Inverse folding.
């Protein structure tokens, strides 16, 4: 892939990881694990794939691509990417989870934050909403796409599979769903807690076109997965990209464990994590 | 009292079906979603005329609520329909998050509400739906009384920008209100002026209240009958003014006590105009199989039950 592109993705993702740690540390609460696992592919989505821009953002997504975060708890990465892509001011990140903030613990539409299309938090619901937007785009003869991120643990919710059936039945082929397959959830591994099994076989059995990305932290693989997904649109089947990722990726003591799903690092842990995460030319937001 | 002419028994759900079709013809933003009950909920005429704007969701109500929210976000006016229990209790969290907290322009068309579902029995007879829906910030709760009013309420819901819960029922009931009425959300409808007691009724029990009014008149009791077609936002001014005027109140609804219209009005009056009250409702119990009229009689949700409640409250005046 283009080396300029790769380095700009790497820089944005590196800054996003610093943001995640600093936001959650300052708020003394939040969800670093899944934010860090989804950082790389969401960076590519926001900065390169999605036909949406901060200046022209409207909630109805008319004439633009739309994004729904179904796994609403990973707001640290979501808000960080909104700030890094011009939707909100960088320094607003310091208000995360604080009283009076627009940057609620889970996405909220009350504050009119550019980039937020729907609330989420109670799991399993965003895919259905994304399908509704996608169906409206079809009615309006728009060829834009709707992207939606679900968690692997979240996929234990029955509504996800209601939506999976509905999407295939209605041939919603302008939706690109993504699963952050990090294998961890609050109580342990996804295999031990929910027995999710072979996600690829499941989604295929539900009538979806599945794109598998073996390393959801490798920008070349991520870009190839998005290219494949985009070219699979419009062919009568909904599209799912399964990104295999690592929970807590980028911070050694958070990586590969469920322990940091929804736990904030203490001050010294913030310091330890930031030492592992390179500073960037973009710079940290001000506290 | 005035003469109320029953234009022939008609189910309120047919009023919804007619309203949806008319709204759909006027406004192409209107879309409809149903979960395998298209005929029962009377969405079939809309589905036939606008097949591209109708989404059959299968027996999957949670997804239907989410899909409706998405359609609404993208600029559509989304009506979703099923039996009242399946679009409230079954999907309370989806309505709370995707519709109310998410501020989406979704209309929940809830048919087969209350005991009058009849023979299907308690699983299908929600007597708690108003409590659930009125607990949600931003939700408008409409409970029209006959077919004509349900059609008018449907048109009003279509024109209103925001979440609406529209409650209606299965059986044929007297159709007596003006077919060309304009439904005003948030306005109580004064049907009969009286001076001794006020009966606030909603849904199917409005006709029963009018029958009670006639029976009471024969005994020299003057009852004021007010149709609470909008439960939320409640027309508090009309409620308080009538309670002050008559000094005795009965609230009649095809719903249980907890969270129903009775408790709602009691709360308003306790704060603004404490008044002796009696209730005609399902109490705190589940329903059972039977014909609609057998059930209404057995649970005291009819004209006779309202007369009893009026006499009780008058004795406390």
């Amino acid at each position: 892939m283009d080396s300029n592109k790769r380095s700009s993705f790497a820089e944005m993702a590196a800054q996003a990881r610093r943001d995640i740690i600093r936001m959650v540390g300052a708020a003394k609460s939040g969800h670093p694990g899944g934010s860090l696992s989804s950082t790389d592919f969401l960076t590519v989505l926001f900065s390169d794939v999605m036909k949406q821009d901060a200046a022209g953002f409207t909630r109805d997504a008319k004439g633009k691509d739309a994004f729904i975060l179904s796994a609403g708890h990973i707001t640290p990465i979501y808000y960080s990417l909104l700030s890094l892509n011009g939707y909100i001011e960088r320094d607003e990140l310091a208000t995360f989870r604080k009283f009076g903030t627009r940057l609620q613990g889970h996405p909220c539409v009350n504050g009119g934050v550019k980039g937020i299309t729907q609330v989420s938090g109670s799991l399993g619901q965003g895919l259905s909403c994304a399908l509704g937007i996608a169906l409206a785009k079809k009615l309006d003869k728009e060829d834009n796409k709707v992207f939606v991120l679900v968690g692997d643990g979240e996929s234990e919710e029955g509504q996800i599979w209601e939506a999976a059936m509905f999407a295939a039945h209605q041939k919603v082929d302008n939706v690109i769903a993504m699963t952050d397959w990090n294998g961890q959830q609050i109580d342990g591994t996804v295999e031990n807690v929910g027995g999710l099994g072979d996600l690829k076989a499941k989604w295929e059995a539900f009538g979806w076109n599945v794109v598998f990305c073996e390393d959801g932290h490798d920008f070349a693989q991520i870009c190839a997965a998005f290219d494949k997904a985009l070219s699979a649109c419009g062919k009568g089947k909904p599209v799912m990209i399964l990104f295999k990722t690592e929970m807590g990726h980028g911070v050694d003591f958070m990586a590969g464990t469920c322990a940091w799903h929804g736990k904030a690092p203490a001050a010294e842990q913030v310091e330890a994590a930031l030492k592992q995460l390179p500073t960037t030319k973009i710079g940290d937001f001000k506290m | 009292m005035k003469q109320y002419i029953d234009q022939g028994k008609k189910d309120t759900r047919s009023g919804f079906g007619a309203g949806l079709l008319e709204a759909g013809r006027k406004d192409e933003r209107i879309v409809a979603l149903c979960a395998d009950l298209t005929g029962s909920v009377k969405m079939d005429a809309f589905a036939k005329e606008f097949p591209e704007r109708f989404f059959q969701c299968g027996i999957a109500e949670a997804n239907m609520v989410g899909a409706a929210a998405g359609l609404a976000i993208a600029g559509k006016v989304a009506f979703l329909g099923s039996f009242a229990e399946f679009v409230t209790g079954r999907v309370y969290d989806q309505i709370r998050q995707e519709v109310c907290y998410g501020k989406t322009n979704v209309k929940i068309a809830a048919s087969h509400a209350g005991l009058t579902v009849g023979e299907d029995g308690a699983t299908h007879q929600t007597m708690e739906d108003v409590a659930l829906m009125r607990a949600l910030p931003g939700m408008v709760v409409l409970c029209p009384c006959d077919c004509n009013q349900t059609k008018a309420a449907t048109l009003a819901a279509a024109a209103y920008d925001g979440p609406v819960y529209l409650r209606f029922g299965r059986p044929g009931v007297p159709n007596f209100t003006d077919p060309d009425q304009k439904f005003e959300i948030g306005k109580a409808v004064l049907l009969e002026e009286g001076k001794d007691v006020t009966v606030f009724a909603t849904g199917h029990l409005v006709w029963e209240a009018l029958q009670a009014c006639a029976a009471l008149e024969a005994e020299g009791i003057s009852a004021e009958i007010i149709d609470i077609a909008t439960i939320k936002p409640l027309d508090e001014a009309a409620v308080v003014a009538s309670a002050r005027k008559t000094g005795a109140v009965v609230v009649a609804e095809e719903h249980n006590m907890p969270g129903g219209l009775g408790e709602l009005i009691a709360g308003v009056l306790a704060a603004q105009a404490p008044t002796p009250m009696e209730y005609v409702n399902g109490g705190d119990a589940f329903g059972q199989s039977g014909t609609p009229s057998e059930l209404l009689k057995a649970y005291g949700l009819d004209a006779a039950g309202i007369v009893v409640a009026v006499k009780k409250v008058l004795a406390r005046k």
In short: Chain B touches chain A through 32 residues (CB under 8 Å). The domain at 189-315 of chain B is CATH 3.40.50.920 (Rossmann fold). The first strand of chain B starts at residue 9 and ends at 11.
